Amino acid sequence: MHNASDRSSWIAATEASRPLFVGLDLGGTNIKAGMVDDAGRTIAYASQESRVDQGPADVAVRLGGMVGTLCDLAGVASDELAGVGLGTPGPQNLHTGVLYDTGNMPGFEGFPIRDRVAEHCGHAVTFANDATAAAYGEYWTGSGRSLSSMVFWTLGTGIGGGVIIGDSCLEGHHSHATECGHIIVDTSDTARDCPCGQRGHLEAYASATSLVAIAREKLACGAAGPLAEAVAAGEALTPVLIAQAARLGDQLALDLILDAARWMGIGTVNLMHIIDPEGVVLGGAMTFDGEDDPIGRAYIERVRQEVREQAFPVLARETTIQYATLGGDAGYIGAAGLARVAFRRHAGRGS
Ligand SMILES: [Zn+2]
Protein backbone atom coordinates (compact mmCIF):
# COMPACT_ATOMS: atom_id res chain seq x y z
CA MET A 1 0.00 0.00 0.00
CA HIS A 2 1.19 3.49 -0.91
CA ASN A 3 2.04 5.54 2.19
CA ALA A 4 3.22 9.12 1.69
CA SER A 5 3.79 9.76 5.40
CA ASP A 6 6.79 7.42 4.99
CA ARG A 7 9.46 9.71 3.58
CA SER A 8 11.34 6.75 2.08
CA SER A 9 8.55 6.49 -0.50
CA TRP A 10 9.25 10.03 -1.78
CA ILE A 11 11.46 10.75 -4.77
CA ALA A 12 13.98 13.62 -4.80
CA ALA A 13 13.02 16.79 -6.69
CA THR A 14 16.18 16.29 -8.77
CA GLU A 15 14.81 12.93 -10.00
CA ALA A 16 11.32 14.27 -10.72
CA SER A 17 9.89 14.58 -14.23
CA ARG A 18 8.62 18.11 -14.67
CA PRO A 19 6.25 19.87 -14.55
CA LEU A 20 5.33 19.55 -10.87
CA PHE A 21 1.89 19.78 -9.28
CA VAL A 22 0.42 20.08 -5.79
CA GLY A 23 -2.71 18.26 -4.66
CA LEU A 24 -4.73 19.36 -1.62
CA ASP A 25 -7.26 16.95 -0.08
CA LEU A 26 -9.59 18.58 2.45
CA GLY A 27 -11.46 16.11 4.64
CA GLY A 28 -13.68 16.68 7.64
CA THR A 29 -10.84 15.52 9.92
CA ASN A 30 -7.53 16.01 8.10
CA ILE A 31 -5.95 17.95 5.28
CA LYS A 32 -3.50 15.91 3.21
CA ALA A 33 -1.23 17.71 0.78
CA GLY A 34 1.39 16.43 -1.58
CA MET A 35 3.67 17.60 -4.36
CA VAL A 36 3.86 15.13 -7.21
CA ASP A 37 5.79 15.01 -10.46
CA ASP A 38 4.49 14.53 -14.01
CA ALA A 39 4.37 10.76 -13.42
CA GLY A 40 2.35 11.06 -10.19
CA ARG A 41 5.27 10.26 -7.89
CA THR A 42 5.30 12.01 -4.51
CA ILE A 43 8.12 14.50 -3.91
CA ALA A 44 6.85 15.91 -0.61
CA TYR A 45 3.89 15.33 1.67
CA ALA A 46 2.36 17.16 4.62
CA SER A 47 -0.80 16.79 6.67
CA GLN A 48 -2.57 18.64 9.45
CA GLU A 49 -5.91 18.58 11.21
CA SER A 50 -8.64 20.30 9.18
CA ARG A 51 -10.02 22.20 12.22
CA VAL A 52 -13.16 23.02 10.26
CA ASP A 53 -14.55 24.50 13.51
CA GLN A 54 -12.24 27.49 12.92
CA GLY A 55 -14.27 28.41 9.85
CA PRO A 56 -13.74 28.35 6.10
CA ALA A 57 -11.57 31.49 5.83
CA ASP A 58 -9.02 30.01 8.24
CA VAL A 59 -9.06 26.63 6.49
CA ALA A 60 -8.47 28.36 3.13
CA VAL A 61 -5.46 30.24 4.53
CA ARG A 62 -3.96 27.01 5.84
CA LEU A 63 -4.67 25.12 2.59
CA GLY A 64 -2.89 27.86 0.64
CA GLY A 65 -0.03 27.87 3.14
CA MET A 66 0.53 24.15 2.70
CA VAL A 67 1.59 24.77 -0.90
CA GLY A 68 4.50 26.84 0.42
CA THR A 69 5.25 24.20 3.06
CA LEU A 70 5.56 21.55 0.35
CA CYS A 71 7.83 23.78 -1.76
CA ASP A 72 10.10 24.22 1.29
CA LEU A 73 10.09 20.48 2.01
CA ALA A 74 10.95 19.64 -1.59
CA GLY A 75 13.41 22.49 -2.11
CA VAL A 76 11.35 23.70 -5.08
CA ALA A 77 10.49 27.34 -5.89
CA SER A 78 6.76 28.10 -6.01
CA ASP A 79 7.02 29.31 -9.61
CA GLU A 80 8.19 25.83 -10.63
CA LEU A 81 4.68 24.51 -9.96
CA ALA A 82 2.44 24.12 -13.01
CA GLY A 83 -0.79 23.88 -11.04
CA VAL A 84 -2.60 23.14 -7.80
CA GLY A 85 -5.57 20.82 -7.40
CA LEU A 86 -8.08 20.90 -4.55
CA GLY A 87 -10.53 18.17 -3.55
CA THR A 88 -13.24 18.92 -0.99
CA PRO A 89 -16.25 17.03 0.34
CA GLY A 90 -19.29 17.57 -1.86
CA PRO A 91 -21.62 18.63 -3.03
CA GLN A 92 -20.02 21.73 -4.47
CA ASN A 93 -20.46 23.94 -7.53
CA LEU A 94 -17.47 22.96 -9.65
CA HIS A 95 -18.09 25.84 -12.08
CA THR A 96 -17.97 28.63 -9.51
CA GLY A 97 -15.71 26.94 -6.94
CA VAL A 98 -18.25 27.38 -4.16
CA LEU A 99 -19.28 24.79 -1.58
CA TYR A 100 -22.87 23.73 -0.97
CA ASP A 101 -24.00 22.40 2.40
CA THR A 102 -21.50 19.59 3.03
CA GLY A 103 -23.15 18.24 6.16
CA ASN A 104 -19.99 17.63 8.17
CA MET A 105 -18.53 21.14 7.67
CA PRO A 106 -21.04 23.63 9.14
CA GLY A 107 -20.50 27.24 8.06
CA PHE A 108 -18.80 26.35 4.77
CA GLU A 109 -21.95 26.63 2.63
CA GLY A 110 -21.56 29.35 0.01
CA PHE A 111 -17.84 29.80 0.68
CA PRO A 112 -15.73 30.40 -2.48
CA ILE A 113 -13.03 27.98 -1.41
CA ARG A 114 -11.38 27.48 -4.81
CA ASP A 115 -10.66 31.17 -5.39
CA ARG A 116 -9.63 31.85 -1.78
CA VAL A 117 -7.10 29.04 -1.84
CA ALA A 118 -5.83 30.32 -5.20
CA GLU A 119 -5.32 33.79 -3.68
CA HIS A 120 -3.45 32.36 -0.70
CA CYS A 121 -1.12 30.11 -2.70
CA GLY A 122 -0.67 32.28 -5.81
CA HIS A 123 -1.63 29.57 -8.30
CA ALA A 124 -4.69 28.71 -10.32
CA VAL A 125 -6.61 25.96 -8.52
CA THR A 126 -8.38 23.05 -10.20
CA PHE A 127 -11.43 22.14 -8.11
CA ALA A 128 -12.90 18.65 -7.62
CA ASN A 129 -15.17 16.58 -5.45
CA ASP A 130 -12.95 14.59 -3.04
CA ALA A 131 -14.26 11.21 -4.17
CA THR A 132 -13.65 12.15 -7.80
CA ALA A 133 -10.13 13.29 -6.91
CA ALA A 134 -9.45 9.94 -5.19
CA ALA A 135 -10.91 8.15 -8.22
CA TYR A 136 -8.58 10.05 -10.52
CA GLY A 137 -5.60 9.25 -8.27
CA GLU A 138 -6.29 5.52 -8.52
CA TYR A 139 -6.91 5.87 -12.26
CA TRP A 140 -3.67 7.76 -12.85
CA THR A 141 -1.18 5.87 -10.69
CA GLY A 142 -3.04 3.28 -8.61
CA SER A 143 -5.23 0.25 -9.07
CA GLY A 144 -6.87 1.67 -12.19
CA ARG A 145 -3.72 2.73 -14.05
CA SER A 146 -4.20 0.12 -16.80
CA LEU A 147 -7.89 0.92 -17.24
CA SER A 148 -9.40 3.18 -19.91
CA SER A 149 -12.51 3.84 -17.82
CA MET A 150 -13.30 3.21 -14.21
CA VAL A 151 -15.97 3.38 -11.53
CA PHE A 152 -14.51 4.08 -8.10
CA TRP A 153 -16.17 3.54 -4.73
CA THR A 154 -14.88 5.15 -1.57
CA LEU A 155 -16.21 3.21 1.40
CA GLY A 156 -16.05 4.78 4.83
CA THR A 157 -18.30 6.72 7.19
CA GLY A 158 -20.30 7.48 4.06
CA ILE A 159 -20.10 6.13 0.52
CA GLY A 160 -18.73 8.24 -2.32
CA GLY A 161 -18.13 7.52 -5.95
CA GLY A 162 -16.21 8.71 -8.95
CA VAL A 163 -16.39 7.89 -12.63
CA ILE A 164 -13.42 8.45 -14.92
CA ILE A 165 -13.69 7.96 -18.68
CA GLY A 166 -10.55 8.63 -20.67
CA ASP A 167 -9.06 11.59 -18.83
CA SER A 168 -12.47 13.05 -18.04
CA CYS A 169 -14.30 12.93 -14.74
CA LEU A 170 -18.08 12.66 -14.79
CA GLU A 171 -19.18 15.87 -13.02
CA GLY A 172 -22.72 16.49 -14.20
CA HIS A 173 -24.52 19.68 -15.19
CA HIS A 174 -25.08 20.68 -11.54
CA SER A 175 -21.79 19.18 -10.27
CA HIS A 176 -23.79 16.40 -8.58
CA ALA A 177 -22.80 13.43 -10.75
CA THR A 178 -21.56 10.28 -9.02
CA GLU A 179 -23.23 10.80 -5.66
CA CYS A 180 -23.18 7.02 -5.86
CA GLY A 181 -23.85 6.39 -2.17
CA HIS A 182 -27.31 7.80 -2.71
CA ILE A 183 -28.59 5.51 -5.44
CA ILE A 184 -31.85 3.88 -4.29
CA VAL A 185 -31.51 0.18 -3.52
CA ASP A 186 -34.59 -0.37 -1.34
CA THR A 187 -38.05 1.04 -2.04
CA SER A 188 -39.85 -1.00 0.62
CA ASP A 189 -41.79 0.50 3.52
CA THR A 190 -39.04 -0.70 5.85
CA ALA A 191 -36.19 0.95 3.91
CA ARG A 192 -33.46 2.34 6.16
CA ASP A 193 -32.92 6.07 6.69
CA CYS A 194 -29.90 7.57 4.91
CA PRO A 195 -27.87 10.34 6.60
CA CYS A 196 -28.79 12.61 3.64
CA GLY A 197 -32.40 12.65 4.87
CA GLN A 198 -33.85 10.29 2.25
CA ARG A 199 -34.55 6.56 2.61
CA GLY A 200 -33.41 3.33 0.99
CA HIS A 201 -30.10 4.67 -0.30
CA LEU A 202 -27.05 2.41 -0.65
CA GLU A 203 -25.18 4.37 2.03
CA ALA A 204 -27.85 3.33 4.55
CA TYR A 205 -26.90 -0.34 3.99
CA ALA A 206 -23.21 -0.53 3.17
CA SER A 207 -21.30 2.35 4.82
CA ALA A 208 -19.26 1.91 7.99
CA THR A 209 -21.91 3.86 9.86
CA SER A 210 -24.70 1.60 8.67
CA LEU A 211 -22.67 -1.59 9.26
CA VAL A 212 -22.31 -0.56 12.90
CA ALA A 213 -25.97 0.48 13.18
CA ILE A 214 -27.18 -2.82 11.72
CA ALA A 215 -24.77 -4.75 13.99
CA ARG A 216 -26.13 -2.89 17.02
CA GLU A 217 -29.68 -3.85 16.05
CA LYS A 218 -28.73 -7.53 15.66
CA LEU A 219 -26.86 -7.59 18.98
CA ALA A 220 -29.86 -6.03 20.70
CA CYS A 221 -31.83 -9.10 19.61
CA GLY A 222 -29.63 -11.24 21.87
CA ALA A 223 -26.89 -12.61 19.59
CA ALA A 224 -24.02 -14.56 21.23
CA GLY A 225 -20.40 -15.04 20.14
CA PRO A 226 -17.11 -13.12 20.08
CA LEU A 227 -18.66 -9.87 18.79
CA ALA A 228 -21.39 -9.83 21.46
CA GLU A 229 -18.80 -10.68 24.13
CA ALA A 230 -16.41 -7.92 23.03
CA VAL A 231 -19.18 -5.33 23.02
CA ALA A 232 -20.46 -6.55 26.41
CA ALA A 233 -16.88 -6.15 27.72
CA GLY A 234 -17.02 -2.47 26.73
CA GLU A 235 -15.22 -2.46 23.37
CA ALA A 236 -16.45 0.13 20.87
CA LEU A 237 -18.54 -1.37 18.08
CA THR A 238 -16.66 -0.51 14.88
CA PRO A 239 -16.11 -2.15 11.47
CA VAL A 240 -12.63 -3.15 12.71
CA LEU A 241 -14.12 -4.94 15.73
CA ILE A 242 -16.72 -6.64 13.53
CA ALA A 243 -13.95 -7.83 11.18
CA GLN A 244 -11.89 -9.11 14.13
CA ALA A 245 -14.88 -11.11 15.38
CA ALA A 246 -15.44 -12.50 11.90
CA ARG A 247 -11.82 -13.68 11.80
CA LEU A 248 -12.47 -15.49 15.10
CA GLY A 249 -15.33 -17.38 13.46
CA ASP A 250 -18.23 -15.22 14.61
CA GLN A 251 -20.95 -16.04 12.07
CA LEU A 252 -23.04 -12.94 12.84
CA ALA A 253 -20.04 -10.67 12.23
CA LEU A 254 -19.23 -12.41 8.96
CA ASP A 255 -22.86 -12.27 7.84
CA LEU A 256 -23.00 -8.53 8.58
CA ILE A 257 -19.90 -7.87 6.46
CA LEU A 258 -21.06 -10.09 3.61
CA ASP A 259 -24.47 -8.46 3.61
CA ALA A 260 -22.83 -5.02 3.31
CA ALA A 261 -20.82 -6.50 0.41
CA ARG A 262 -24.00 -7.81 -1.21
CA TRP A 263 -25.48 -4.30 -1.15
CA MET A 264 -22.25 -2.96 -2.66
CA GLY A 265 -22.58 -5.60 -5.37
CA ILE A 266 -26.09 -4.37 -6.15
CA GLY A 267 -24.84 -0.77 -6.32
CA THR A 268 -21.97 -1.86 -8.54
CA VAL A 269 -24.28 -3.67 -10.97
CA ASN A 270 -26.43 -0.54 -11.21
CA LEU A 271 -23.42 1.58 -12.14
CA MET A 272 -22.06 -1.05 -14.54
CA HIS A 273 -25.36 -1.06 -16.41
CA ILE A 274 -25.22 2.73 -16.78
CA ILE A 275 -21.52 3.41 -17.29
CA ASP A 276 -20.08 0.09 -18.54
CA PRO A 277 -16.59 0.83 -17.21
CA GLU A 278 -13.59 -1.36 -17.97
CA GLY A 279 -13.07 -1.81 -14.24
CA VAL A 280 -14.49 -1.11 -10.79
CA VAL A 281 -12.19 -0.13 -7.92
CA LEU A 282 -13.11 -0.26 -4.23
CA GLY A 283 -11.24 2.11 -1.93
CA GLY A 284 -11.67 3.91 1.38
CA ALA A 285 -11.27 2.93 5.01
CA MET A 286 -13.87 0.13 5.04
CA THR A 287 -12.08 -2.35 2.78
CA PHE A 288 -11.03 -4.81 5.53
CA ASP A 289 -7.29 -4.73 4.75
CA GLY A 290 -7.89 -5.72 1.14
CA GLU A 291 -6.91 -8.91 -0.66
CA ASP A 292 -4.18 -9.70 1.91
CA ASP A 293 -6.80 -10.39 4.57
CA PRO A 294 -9.30 -13.30 4.59
CA ILE A 295 -12.17 -10.97 5.47
CA GLY A 296 -11.06 -8.49 2.80
CA ARG A 297 -11.02 -11.31 0.26
CA ALA A 298 -14.43 -12.58 1.38
CA TYR A 299 -15.86 -9.07 1.11
CA ILE A 300 -14.73 -8.35 -2.44
CA GLU A 301 -15.56 -11.88 -3.54
CA ARG A 302 -19.14 -11.32 -2.31
CA VAL A 303 -19.29 -8.11 -4.39
CA ARG A 304 -18.03 -10.06 -7.42
CA GLN A 305 -20.58 -12.83 -6.80
CA GLU A 306 -23.44 -10.35 -6.86
CA VAL A 307 -22.09 -8.93 -10.11
CA ARG A 308 -21.81 -12.42 -11.64
CA GLU A 309 -25.41 -13.15 -10.69
CA GLN A 310 -27.02 -9.85 -11.67
CA ALA A 311 -25.01 -8.09 -14.38
CA PHE A 312 -25.42 -8.64 -18.12
CA PRO A 313 -23.23 -11.62 -19.13
CA VAL A 314 -20.51 -9.71 -21.00
CA LEU A 315 -20.14 -7.25 -18.13
CA ALA A 316 -20.19 -9.99 -15.48
CA ARG A 317 -17.46 -11.83 -17.35
CA GLU A 318 -15.18 -9.00 -18.38
CA THR A 319 -15.43 -6.09 -15.93
CA THR A 320 -12.62 -6.22 -13.38
CA ILE A 321 -13.44 -5.56 -9.72
CA GLN A 322 -10.48 -4.87 -7.47
CA TYR A 323 -9.30 -2.96 -4.43
CA ALA A 324 -7.60 0.44 -4.57
CA THR A 325 -3.86 0.58 -3.89
CA LEU A 326 -3.12 4.20 -2.92
CA GLY A 327 -4.97 4.21 0.42
CA GLY A 328 -5.34 7.68 1.92
CA ASP A 329 -2.91 9.16 -0.63
CA ALA A 330 -5.35 8.80 -3.55
CA GLY A 331 -7.06 12.14 -2.84
CA TYR A 332 -4.06 14.44 -3.04
CA ILE A 333 -2.45 12.49 -5.89
CA GLY A 334 -5.71 12.70 -7.84
CA ALA A 335 -6.20 16.40 -7.08
CA ALA A 336 -2.67 17.01 -8.39
CA GLY A 337 -3.46 14.81 -11.38
CA LEU A 338 -6.54 16.88 -12.21
CA ALA A 339 -4.43 20.04 -12.04
CA ARG A 340 -2.13 18.28 -14.52
CA VAL A 341 -5.07 17.46 -16.83
CA ALA A 342 -6.12 21.15 -16.73
CA PHE A 343 -2.56 22.28 -17.39
CA ARG A 344 -2.15 19.95 -20.36
CA ARG A 345 -5.52 20.97 -21.84
CA HIS A 346 -4.54 24.61 -21.48
CA ALA A 347 -1.20 23.89 -23.13
CA GLY A 348 -2.94 21.97 -25.91
CA ARG A 349 -1.13 18.76 -25.11
CA GLY A 350 -4.12 16.51 -24.55
CA SER A 351 -3.65 13.86 -21.91
ZN1 LIG B 1 -28.71 9.28 0.87
Shape: globular
**Could you list the spans in which at least 5 consecutive residues all have pLDDT below 50?**
none
Q: Report the major sheet.
A: 5 strands, mixed
Number of domains: 2
Q: Architecture of the largest domain, CATH level 2?
A: 2-Layer Sandwich
Tally the beta strands: 12
CATH top level label of the largest domain: Alpha Beta
The ordered string of helix (H) and strand (E) elements is EEEHEEEHEHEEEHHHHHEHHEH
| Nearest-integer average pLDDT | 96
Look up the CATH topology of the largest domain. Nucleotidyltransferase, domain 5
Give the class from helix and strand content and strand pairing: alpha/beta
Give the cofactors and ligands.
Answer: zinc ion
Name the beta content range.
15-25%
CATH H level of the largest domain: which superfamily? ATPase, nucleotide binding domain
Distance between the termini: 26 Å
The neighbouring-strand order within the major sheet is 3-2-1-4-7
Helical content stands at 25-40%
Rg, alpha carbons: 20 Å
**Contiguous helical run count:** 11
Please describe the topology of this protein:
Elements: E1 20-26, E2 30-36, E3 42-49, H1 56-74, E4 81-88, E5 92-93, E6 98-99, H2 113-121, E7 125-129, H3 130-141, E8 149-155, E9 159-165, E10 168-169, H4 203-206, H5 208-220, H6 226-232, H7 239-247, H8 251-275, E11 279-283, H9 294-310, H10 313-318, E12 320-323, H11 330-346
Parallel strand pairs: 1-4, 4-7, 8-11, 11-12
Antiparallel strand pairs: 1-2, 2-3, 5-6, 8-9, 9-10
